[in-house]
Amino acid sequence: MSLVSGPGRAPNTLSDQKLCIEKHVEYIKKLDSRKDELEYWLTEHLRLNGVYWGLTALHLLGHPDGLPREDAINFVLSCQRDNGGFGAAPGHDAHILYTVSAVQILVTLDAVDELEKRGLGGKRKVGSFIAGLQDKETGSFMGDEWGELDTRFLYGAFNALSLLNLLDLVDVDKAVSYVQQCENLDGGYGVSPGAESHAGQVFTCVGALAIAGRLDLIDKDRLGGWLSERQVDNGGLNGRPEKLEDACYSWWVGASLAMIDKLHWVDGSKLAASLLRCQDPEAGGFADRPGHAVDVFHTHFALAGLSLLKYEGVGEIDPVYCLPRSITKKVLST
Ligand SMILES: [Zn+2]
């Protein structure tokens, strides 16, 4: 039963949109064949992330084989650099965010052993690239050799290393205490100690604590209160007070709530209806807001949000890893 259907609703209103599963599958599969279009080149810096978003969305839509497996593996391996990390596309510098996507794609395709066979140094080389980005003093992580610090990188490191079973390469306790320093009095977390709370950073901090097995450090009522206040009148979620809603925040906020068992603190059926209004029912894909241009990033995160809500026809997602639950169950044996 769909979360947005039910008695007492007027038919043919926008909120009664159905999830257009086949259209979304076609939209994602076509992304790979649009190499002659400007959009493709404008997004080259996001290419490896794009494969992860598209592949995960296809899993949630029940089409795990929607992308050609060998091509995807070959593309991932072609993005690896000598230092073990991965760039956005072949020839691009390695960065932790692309390295995490590379690991997530290989794990999803059950192809981590390809790193040993054809990668530059096997999975330990990937792990040592990531571990080398940890600041030994503070426990935080840089994104690359240029040194920018962000709790996104710390979460990404924990995500990829735990999937590779290499979390012992880093100082988990120090990283955990760094995350605690990013907690604010409103219950949320910022990009660094003292920075304003933001739902995206909340997700990364809560996710890192979940992987470290330290969710006990969170004041769940206080954080759940801040997160549930992100729901606006039309049912959508924003990232900070006074901001507009955005489909991708159904994930950042929703997954954070799910990890602390407070997802029921937002109105799920209103949220699902707001997400369905962001889909393009003709061409497929989701946008950040109704009527805007669709993209694979928002398509992935809107579907992930619907998955958290157990929306009919959408497969189960792991709120910690943002991967299909069937995959993390197998890899992490949880
Ligand atoms: Zn967004």
From TrEMBL:
Keyword Repeat: yes
Catalytic activity: geranylgeranyl diphosphate + L-cysteinyl-[protein] = S-geranylgeranyl-L-cysteinyl-[protein] + diphosphate
Keyword Repeat in record: yes
Main enzyme class: transferase
GO cellular component terms attached to this protein's record: Rab-protein geranylgeranyltransferase complex
Enzyme Commission numbers on file: 2.5.1.60
Gene3D superfamilies found in the cross-reference section: 1.50.10.20
Domain named Prenyltransferase alpha-alpha toroid: residues: 20-323
Family the UniProt entry places it in: Belongs to the protein prenyltransferase subunit beta family.
Listed name of the protein: Geranylgeranyl transferase type-2 subunit beta
Organism, scientific name: Aspergillus calidoustus
